Amino acid sequence: MSLPTRTQVWRVKNSPAESVVLDFSDDATFALTEEPLPHLEDGEMLVENVYFSNDPVQRSLIQKDVLEESLCVAPVREGDVVISHSIARILAINSNTSPEFKVDDLVFCMTGGWRRYAVVKADSSACLPLMVPENVPITAALGLFGIPGYTAYYGLKDILKLREGDSLIVSGAAGAVGNIVVQYAKNVIKAKTVIAIAGSEKKCKWLKEIGADIALNYKADTFPQDLHDATPDLVDAFFDKYTSGFILDLVISRIKRFGSIAACGSISGYDKDVGKPTMGTTWSEVTTKRLKIQGFSALDFMFPPDGSNRVATECFPGIAGALQRGDITLEHAEEIVEVPFTDVPQVWGMLFTGGNSGKLVTKLKPST
Q: Cα–Cα–Cα angle for 161, 164, 168, nearest 5°?
């Protein structure tokens, strides 16, 4: 089989100020191109993307006029390739490259972006071996055993320092991070009460099946009263994937004095009302209650300054053990959508319409 010499690529065409435009019009956010592949240099390899991770943070990176210092990684400007983590198959390796990888290996790729094929560095700055336990789907490397799982683990253990018997509210609970937070908090840490917030009755039903004591639909007219009724004694902590908006306002009033908030996302404001104030009515309670709010990224713990590898020594074994014991389930926690490369943006857009539960993964149909 001959190796490809060209590839399809999705680039940013118009940096969005508000909602993304997912079509092929002049106003479209993304543009599909076909481009030649560069020749392999020393230390490089050619990969074919098989699965794309869909992550809300991709939206913040393409925001019009976003400041680099406001982000955890470099912004993606007009003309740039859309970045994405992926699972890729190695098609070729330069003959002078270290034998860390071999042809046909599947790898976790961090630099391929929205390309069908990509030339990437053959080292840990670009690709890592897939880390999933035996008999676990490889797509879990993008979810439970990827950044979503590590975000849930470190947010509970290091940021909130949640303990047995504590009570917790989780927003965005039916998403890739949130469902793991619910399961790990209730079934592993043994929290007394876990209250999950999601956007439909179907999602709430699923969350109660996997560990939530109470699941509330924030789209219900009765949500403010439902939240009040669910927290008669207030709660110790809030794991916030929704960040900003009326949910944060309401939850702040239901947290105990000296409680904690772990903030790891702001999906409510990623694709609408960007940059507009959407909170603040209960902000004074942060002071009066002496609340601790800490933003974080799993990358803080995956690549710490001291060079330690807590993922391999602590986080991965902890999550794998929970899965093996049945404390965490992958059932219904992944949604894999198979599409041609031309439809990659449409699948990603499901993140902002509530169209998925658990980790949303794009599977690319084979090239013809």
A: 65
> Which residues make Cβ contacts (< 8 Å) with residue 39, sequence separation at least 6?
none
What single DSSP character describes residue 220? S
260-287 pLDDT tens trace: 999 987 654 545 555 555 556 788 999 9
| Neighbour-count burial of 257, counting CB atoms closer than 10 A to its CB (0-12 exposed, 13-18 middle, 19+ buried) | exposed
Residue 256 host element (H or E): strand 255-263
What's 366's DSSP letter?
P
Burial of 148 (0-12, 13-18, 19+ CB in 10 A): buried
Torsion-angle region of 180 (φ positive above 0: left; ψ -120 to 50: alpha; else: beta): alpha
The answer to whether the beta carbons of residues 144 and 176 sit under 8 Å apart is no
Say how far apart CA 113 and CA 334 lie, in whole Å: 21
Is the pTM of the predicted complex or chain greater than 0.85? yes
Q: What are the tens digits of pLDDT across the range 9-51? A: 999 999 999 999 999 999 999 999 999 999 999 999 999 999 9
- What distance, in Å, lies between the first and last C-alpha atoms of the chain? 13
What the block records as the tokens of 101 is 């990888």
